[in-house]
Specification:
The complex is a heterodimer of chains A (about 375) and B (about 90). By secondary structure, chain A is an alpha+beta fold. Chain A starts with 9 loop residues before the first strand and ends in a 5-residue tail after the last helix. Chain A has helices at about 115-125, 140-150, 155-180, 195-205, 215-225, 275-290, 295-300, 365-380, and strands at about 10-15, 25, 30-35, 40-45, 50-55, 60, 70, 110, 140, 185-190, 235-240, 240-245, 250, 255, 260, 265, 295, 305, 325-330, 335-340, 345-355. The chains are: A alpha+beta (about 375), B mainly alpha (about 90). The interface between A and B is medium-sized, with 17 and 16 residues.
């Protein structure tokens, strides 16, 4: 069970997307796990052949528990010993209770259509208790709705608030840890974004509606590029030391309908074009709100950006998401009088803030980052 | 020819795609959609894409403010889709 964030302690295996004997390569989605942050597609970290599926769907297991074992290509399958821990196991064998066998009527493996999964969540239907009626053993929307009719209604009503409460718990744990352990320092600056906003307007005029770019994507790209100049802000604080990251996996704070918050990552953001950044952002928001993020997106953000300008605020004073060491905040783009070279102008301005971990960087370096960010936003055509 | 009812349906479908839990019967046509439905600029872009797909109308960014309320959006789209309108 992978850790999908510092605040995660356990997850429930929803379904396997591979079978024993199937060849997999790094990055393949092998399973779906239900966490406090919703359903997450779990990717595999190594190439090989699936040996045994140790944990059955419907089982809740702690982080670090072995879900399945993998063997190298050509290696003989292992003898069927369900509790076996593979060589790469990250933690000592977990207590036996965590691999308790699932209920007897439980299907060994099942598939669920995404719309059925969402509906099941809304109705509070336990997918593991359903028998698929569709072709190839896929649980359909009709199966879920049929089950919901048999199910007593009070439990169905409780499902959504529970989920929100669980997410609130996860945020509480991470933020309390952050404020307890991370010595934050804060810097802020006002950046003239007139040029960037004008440039984007012109750019969007020429683009088909399907390729329009939001200003948020411009800000994200500028942050990713500016971070390359101050690597102390990009990485993790782990075991008493800063571990910088070569790639910028940009966590993006995404508000969910109903009040949830999640910060999945745009991976390798510094290498993406502006359009690719927009597409990645769009894809991430859509999947975050639809409940289908991937494990790597939730676990490996190296820095986070939060943009609260849409709610009308001008300044964000953030809280770092551990084990990251920095968070960049943006407020609303506002029109204001602006003096420059002895002249007075009306310009569009944004207030950018950096909150950073003083164990990993000093204010001087943080200031250099904000200055690099300003510089990037003055030359939007280069982003 | 696209009728006002068609337009209304397309707009409500588009809004429903980004705010599925909203109660559209309670929507006040003269008040900003953003405040009533808690939609952000990403949701709004999706509404624009949806309208583009359903009505074949390409709404430039400069006209976004004309879609601020349900009433103004219906007026704007009706004008854009009226026979003889030159884009």
């Amino acid at each position: 069970m992978p850790s999908l964030g510092a605040d995660m302690e356990a997850g429930t295996l929803v379904e396997w997307q591979v079978q024993p004997g199937q060849r997999v390569k790094r990055g393949d989605v092998v399973a779906v796990v239900e966490t406090q942050k919703g359903a997450v597609e779990v990717e595999i970290w190594d190439d090989g052949v699936v040996d045994q599926l140790v944990v059955q769907p419907g089982t809740k297991v702690p982080v670090g528990e072995v879900l399945a074992t993998l063997r190298a290509e050509g290696e003989a399958p292992a003898a069927p010993t369900p509790a076996r821990a593979p060589a790469q196991a990250m933690t000592p064998p977990a207590p036996a209770v965590s691999v308790a066998p699932p209920p007897a009527q439980h299907p060994a493996r099942f598939k669920v259509s995404p719309v059925a999964r969402r509906r099941a969540e809304e109705l509070g239907v336990d997918l593991s208790q359903l028998t698929p009626s569709g072709p190839e053993g896929v649980i359909s929307l009709a199966d879920v709705e049929r089950a919901a009719q048999i199910k007593p209604p009070p439990a169905a009503k409780a499902a959504a608030p529970d989920k929100l409460a669980a997410m609130r718990q996860a945020i509480a744990a991470a933020m309390a840890k952050s404020k307890r352990e991370i010595p934050h320092y804060y810097l802020g600056t006002t950046i003239d974004v007139s040029r960037a906003v004008d440039w984007l307007e012109q750019e969007n005029l020429q683009r088909p509606v399907t390729e329009r770019v939001l200003f948020a994507a411009v800000l994200l790209k500028a942050v990713a590029v500016a971070l390359k100049e101050v690597p102390e802000l990009n990485g993790f604080w782990l075991d008493g030391a800063f571990k910088p990251s070569a790639a910028v996996h940009l966590g993006v704070g995404i508000g969910l309908r109903g009040g949830g918050l999640i910060a999945p990552a745009i991976r390798d953001a510094e290498q993406k074009s502006l359009l690719a950044t927009m597409q990645a952002l769009s894809d991430l928001i859509t999947r975050a709100r639809g409940g289908a993020l991937r494990s790597s997106e939730l676990s490996d953000a190296t820095v986070t950006v939060t943009n609260l300008g849409e709610q009308g605020v001008e300044t964000v004073y953030g809280v770092i998401y551990p084990p990251q060491v920095a968070l960049v905040g943006f407020g609303k783009v506002v029109e204001r009088p602006w003096a420059e070279n002895g002249g007075l102008y009306v310009r569009r301005l944004i207030h950018a803030t950096l909150c950073a971990d003083h164990r990993a960087s000093v204010g001087h370096r943080g200031a250099l980052f904000l200055s690099a960010l300003d510089r990037q936003l003055q030359e939007p055509q280069k982003l | 020819m696209t009728t006002r009812d068609d337009i209304r349906k397309a707009v409500l479908d588009a809004l429903g795609s980004v705010a599925p839990e909203a109660d559209f019967d309670a929507l006040r046509p003269e008040r900003p959609l953003r405040d009533q439905l808690d939609i952000d600029s990403f949701d709004f872009l999706n509404v624009i894409l949806h309208l583009h797909e359903k009505l074949g109308v390409d709404i430039p960014e400069a006209d976004y403010s004309k879609l601020a309320t349900l009433a103004s959006a219906l007026d704007y789209l009706a004008a854009r889709l009226a026979p003889g309108h030159i884009t």
